[in-house]
Amino acid sequence: MTNTYYEILQVEKSASESEIKAAFKRLARIHHPDKNSDSAEATARFQTLKNAYDVLIDPFQRRQYDRTLRPVGFGTRAPAPSEPPKSSFHHDSESKKKLDKRIAELGASLDQLQVQKSATDHDIWTEEELLAKLKIKLDNLNDEGEDEKAAGTASKGKRDFKLASWFTSGESAQVKEARARRAAERNAARTALQEQIEQATATIAGLRSRDEPLMAQIMKEMRELARLNIERESLARDK
């Protein structure tokens, strides 16, 4: 007569671990060789019970056996479950430990990367705000120069047209000198602003060059973390 391991232990296929243990203890008392004059038949029967118990009590071996369920006879040894695929997470208990450890490591790494990312984003935002202000100052400075140039041209045209007697050559020289002085000041300020703009632009470029690989690493670790969480959930369902 042939029997499955479940039939040998006289349990249902859905039997729990405690039910399998209880069934084995009960049957072992009956079929133990010490209680059967060490007969060859009793020894073989007990060994079959032990084989059935060893497979069904181990979650991985039990799943493998269920996939290739074959009836076996008392006194015979069922084919051993196929070897698990080579993987760092091949055994349930070891799998959970390794998964939990790796998930914790990734979580800590992501926390650190997020801190770095936040700091870099803040620095980029600060530099971009500074750059915007510098550009506004430069635009205002250029507008001021254009306005004064336009005003000077209009004033000169009006003087030439009216030939105002009160406008002396001395006053004209003073106006020209003041205008030239303001133009020189604007040029110096413009040069300083342009240098600051170039520096801010270079700083932003440097920050972005650090930010891109940082973001890529964050995305990579987030994908890995998601994969491991799915694997852990799958492992929990298989138990």
TrEMBL record:
<protein>
    <recommendedName>
        <fullName>J domain-containing protein</fullName>
    </recommendedName>
</protein>
<feature type="domain" description="J">
    <location>
        <begin position="4"/>
        <end position="69"/>
    </location>
</feature>
<dbReference type="InterPro" id="IPR036869">
    <property type="entry name" value="J_dom_sf"/>
</dbReference>
<dbReference type="InterPro" id="IPR001623">
    <property type="entry name" value="DnaJ_domain"/>
</dbReference>
<feature type="compositionally biased region" description="Basic and acidic residues">
    <location>
        <begin position="89"/>
        <end position="98"/>
    </location>
</feature>
<dbReference type="InterPro" id="IPR018253">
    <property type="entry name" value="DnaJ_domain_CS"/>
</dbReference>
<dbReference type="Pfam" id="PF00226">
    <property type="entry name" value="DnaJ"/>
</dbReference>
<dbReference type="InterPro" id="IPR050817">
    <property type="entry name" value="DjlA_DnaK_co-chaperone"/>
</dbReference>
<feature type="region of interest" description="Disordered">
    <location>
        <begin position="72"/>
        <end position="98"/>
    </location>
</feature>
<keyword id="KW-0175">Coiled coil</keyword>
<feature type="coiled-coil region">
    <location>
        <begin position="175"/>
        <end position="238"/>
    </location>
</feature>
